[in-house]
Amino acid sequence: MAKAITDKNILIRVLKNPELMTSLDASEWNDLLREARISNLAGRLAADAESLKMNDLLPAKVQNLFKSFTYNSLSSARMIRWEMNRVMRALKGSDEKVILLKGAAYLDKELSCTRGRISVDLDILVPKKRIDWVEEKFIAAGWQHQLDNDYDQKFYREYAHELPPMVHPDRRISIDVHHSILPVTSRVSPDMSKLIGDAVKSKSGFYTFSDVDIILHSVVHQFQDGEVRSSLRNLLEQHDMLNEFGKNADFWEKLVPRAVELGLTRALYYALRYTHMIMGTEIPDHVLADIRPFGPNLIVRGIMDWMVPGVISPSFGATGFARWVAANGLYIRSHWLRMPPLLLTRHLTIKFFRRFSMSG
Q1: Domains of the chain, with CATH numbers?
Q2: How much is the CA Rg of the chain, to the nearest whole Å?
Q3: Overall pTM > 0.70
Q4: CA–CA dist 360, 355 (Å, integer)
């Protein structure tokens, strides 16, 4: 059933086989571009067309749109690199490890998954004991907190794995300063000293996680700390990185043992299962065998196999009531994994009444 759903999704089909773009009719282009824009993957389509040198075979309107998408992605990369430069300047003179996360790390390492990618924020990580020092440095350099609500500020500082988002008024790029890859309240708590200890320094002066840890952070962000709904871009990035890092056989030998060491096996199980199922990622049989014991029971696996492919893309897949059930089921799951029931109930209640009072 899951494969049948994803086979019907025009965006997934084109991402897996970009040459299909040369044979689409007007209606299919409308569906593809709408889905790609919502998924933040329009730039990726343009990059695929460019790399395969088939722009001239596409409709003139599509060529013009692809030029615009390419310009936007290149502009985004320049802004993120400049914000990295400003961060380095603000922390000048320190020998502290400042680790780039997510899109900034992919950009710094020049990974293939950055093709056509647009980032709207910069994520960095420092040891928890240095988080206050970094905040002071950023405020002194002109960054400001985006949240001025006392409750939100308190919640971030007591329960989250990062400072409240900060932004410089001249550049408007949001910076998220993390001290962990998961909230303090999460049911999973990896040893951050191991992740930080194995981080690798790049020529930019920043650090990035090791290749194995970059993948594990991505899968945790999607399947442990975030919503799976409309997260096709995350899955595609994991597909790209698994293909790229997997050229080194040592990567596959380290992947599952590292997940076991850090307690991140369930998220890795789902990532390997759904990259393989949805994107057709080639994963060695022994890796799939090694991760299989860490999967859920048969009933939970069946439910996830129905929900994830049905809502991972924003417009296609499950529809109507079925989509509502799947989307909300995954939403509840993400919060259940993120914080204990009493804190979750209290937090959602406060957020609800605040929103209600604001709307009134």
Answers
A1: 2-359 (3.30.460.40)
A2: 21
A3: yes
A4: 9
